């Protein structure tokens, strides 16, 4: 007989889904997020997310920078209740200037929504984030946005995903016309056409008309050539396309595809309904004691993100923890795997969740924000019961490199302290030249903004003004086998050797082409784009 707690856990796991959105700037991530909240009933009028963002940031000094630039550096977690299920959106920043946090958030997500602009298709940042998803084989749901504007051919967009990402596609709905002639989508689940109504910016949920495929009205509403074109395409995808295979979706090999227009609210509800049915529920997670099922009664979770200085007066750091098993309760005492110490989880952070003020309990698939300064590092496991540790979150290949200089020797101590603390917090990776005569730390980031944040915080929190000297590299690879393997490889051209914070050798290249050349010359030298945190 299962215990009451086991029954409760099973029920709560069944009604939870979480995801992160992967996209390139401008594809419409902020807009889609807002519309999902609108349909999820978490907000009643679109526009609230932006307003809320500025409200929250008004309390924090260094985030003023974020406001000035009108972008989001830090990611939040949004939860809403839809059809009696809790949907957690692990909100990642969508700006070009993204940081390692964007990657780390994907380590906590069970599903990803790949958002594309229908006029552009796959774009560079989306491809990079997709690679991170592929490492964990998480299910990818594709939302092709901005159908109300001129687009590329829908079939061509599917083909691009198949050819370039190696995913098979299953269009769950299919557009009738695009751009000026966008009339709606055909939902293959219900075999009905949802007609699109042009509304300006859609602040409220849309009420479109829905017709059966065979309804004689359709031919009156749609131009004949448009209707025939749509029917031809539909026939093509239904005859030649693959059937929906949820096992393939869950293995990250097939992506369900949706067409819509987030700005005008079109297709958002159809997407949500299918997402709820097709997405993975919280799944077992790999740990040092094997896979831990979410219904395991003992609580466990891991830290995937630290957010510093939400309130600069208190120098606080919020640790975002993905709950993996058991039930979280406020004030519970857990074991901290890295230090072996007991930690009381006494100040759970309130998250954006339908006006909920404090967080008293949470279940697998949820994210909690813990306010324990200094206690946590990225990748830390907390648990109750027999000791376990979840797989760490790796370091990801940085793409921007710069020497960080401290022009004022009297500030050396503060400089060193600041650099160490920001590194521990995961704000940026720190490397050093293999040439011992060069002592300045090398900042290694995945986005430009990380540099600015580090410099800003060093000045404001540690009182050190710094200078950056950019380095001409864009690719980093860790050498498998360490220094020994590197020595064996002999002399390398067109690369610089540095060491990471753990003294491991990393090769820096000017571009991918140079890296491929080195790999072609030295097939025995194994290079990795990520490395474990130790
Ligand atoms: P991001 O977070 O991915 O960077 O994108 P964001 O939602 O900010 O959207 C980028 C731009 O694309 C915005 O226009 C937004 O209104 C527009 N957009 C989003 N979804 C759609 C859509 O379905 N159709 C059309 N036509 N446009 C869409 P903007 O001019 O930058 O801002 P705004 O003045 O509209 O707020």
UniProtKB/TrEMBL annotation:
GO biological process, one term: regulation of translational termination
Domain Tr-type G: 14-285
GO cellular component: cytosol
Gene Ontology MF terms in the entry: GTP binding; GTPase activity; translation release factor activity, codon nonspecific; translation release factor activity, codon specific
SUPFAM superfamilies, alphabetized: EF-G C-terminal domain-like, P-loop containing nucleoside triphosphate hydrolases, Translation proteins
Binding sites annotated in the UniProt record for GTP: 23-30, 91-95, 145-148
Subcellular location: Cytoplasm
Chief place of localization: cytoplasm
Pfam families: EF-G_D2, GTP_EFTU, RF3_C
Family matches, as Gene3D superfamilies: P-loop containing nucleotide triphosphate hydrolases, Peptide chain release factor 3, domain III, Translation factors
Record keywords, A-Z: Cytoplasm, GTP-binding, Nucleotide-binding, Protein biosynthesis
Protein family (similarity comment): Belongs to the TRAFAC class translation factor GTPase superfamily. Classic translation factor GTPase family. PrfC subfamily.
Role noted for this protein: Increases the formation of ribosomal termination complexes and stimulates activities of RF-1 and RF-2. It binds guanine nucleotides and has strong preference for UGA stop codons. It may interact directly with the ribosome. The stimulation of RF-1 and RF-2 is significantly reduced by GTP and GDP, but not by GMP.
Protein name, as recorded: Peptide chain release factor 3
UniProt source species: Oxynema aestuarii AP17
Gene name linked to the record: prfC
């Amino acid at each position: 007989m299962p215990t009451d707690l086991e029954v409760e856990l099973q029920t709560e796991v069944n009604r939870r889904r979480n995801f992160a959105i992967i996209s390139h700037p401008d594809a419409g991530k902020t807009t889609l997020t807002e519309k999902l909240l609108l349909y999820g009933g978490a907000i009643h009028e679109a526009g609230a997310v932006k307003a809320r963002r500025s409200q929250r940031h008004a309390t924090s000094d260094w985030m003023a920078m974020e406001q000035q630039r009108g972008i989001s550096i830090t990611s939040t977690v949004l939860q809403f209740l839809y059809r009696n299920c809790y949907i957690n959106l692990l909100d990642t920043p969508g700006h070009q200037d993204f940081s390692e946090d964007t990657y780390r958030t994907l380590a906590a997500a069970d599903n990803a929504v790949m958002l594309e602009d229908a006029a552009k298709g796959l774009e560079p940042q989306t491809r990079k984030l997709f690679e991170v998803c592929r490492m964990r084989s998480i299910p990818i749901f594709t939302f092709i946005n901005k159908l109300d504007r001129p687009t590329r051919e829908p079939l061509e967009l599917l083909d691009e995903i198949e050819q370039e990402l190696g995913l098979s596609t299953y269009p769950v709905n299919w557009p009738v016309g695009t751009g000026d002639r966008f009339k709606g989508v055909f939902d293959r689940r219900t075999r009905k056409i949802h007609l699109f109504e042009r509304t300006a910016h859609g602040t409220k949920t849309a009420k479109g008309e829905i017709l059966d495929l065979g309804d004689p009205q359709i031919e009156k509403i749609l131009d004949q050539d448009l209707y025939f074109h749509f029917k031809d395409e539909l026939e093509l995808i239904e005859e030649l396309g693959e059937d929906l295979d949820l096992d393939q979706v869950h293995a990250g090999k097939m992506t369900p595809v949706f067409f819509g227009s987030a700005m005008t609210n079109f297709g958002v509800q159809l997407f949500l309904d299918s997402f709820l049915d097709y997405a993975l529920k919280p799944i077992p997670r790999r740990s040092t004691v094997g896979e831990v099922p979410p219904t395991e009664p003992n609580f466990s979770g891991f830290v995937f993100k630290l957010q510093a200085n939400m309130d600069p007066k208190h120098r606080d750091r919020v640790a975002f923890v993905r709950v993996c098993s058991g039930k979280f309760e406020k004030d519970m005492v857990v074991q901290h795997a890295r230090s072996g110490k007991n930690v009381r989880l006494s100040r759970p952070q309130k998250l954006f969740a339908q006006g909920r003020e404090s967080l008293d309990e949470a279940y697998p698939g949820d994210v909690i924000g813990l306010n324990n300064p200094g206690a946590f590092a990225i990748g830390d496991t907390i648990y109750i019961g027999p000791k376990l540790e979840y797989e760490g979150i790796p370091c990801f290949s940085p793409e921007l490199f710069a020497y960080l200089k401290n022009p004022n020797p009297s500030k050396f101590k503060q400089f060193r302290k600041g650099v160490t603390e920001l590194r521990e917090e995961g704000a940026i990776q720190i490397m050093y030249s293999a040439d011992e005569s060069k002592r300045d730390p090398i900042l290694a980031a995945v986005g430009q903004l990380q540099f600015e944040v580090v410099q800003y915080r060093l000045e404001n929190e540690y009182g050190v003004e710094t200078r950056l000297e950019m380095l001409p590299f864009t690719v980093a690879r860790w050498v498998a086998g360490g220094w020994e393997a590197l020595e064996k490889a002999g002399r390398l051209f067109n690369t610089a050797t540095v060491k990471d914070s753990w003294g491991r050798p990393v090769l820096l290249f000017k571009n991918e082409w140079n890296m491929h050349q080195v790999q072609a010359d030295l097939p025995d030298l194994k290079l990795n784009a990520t490395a474990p945190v130790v």
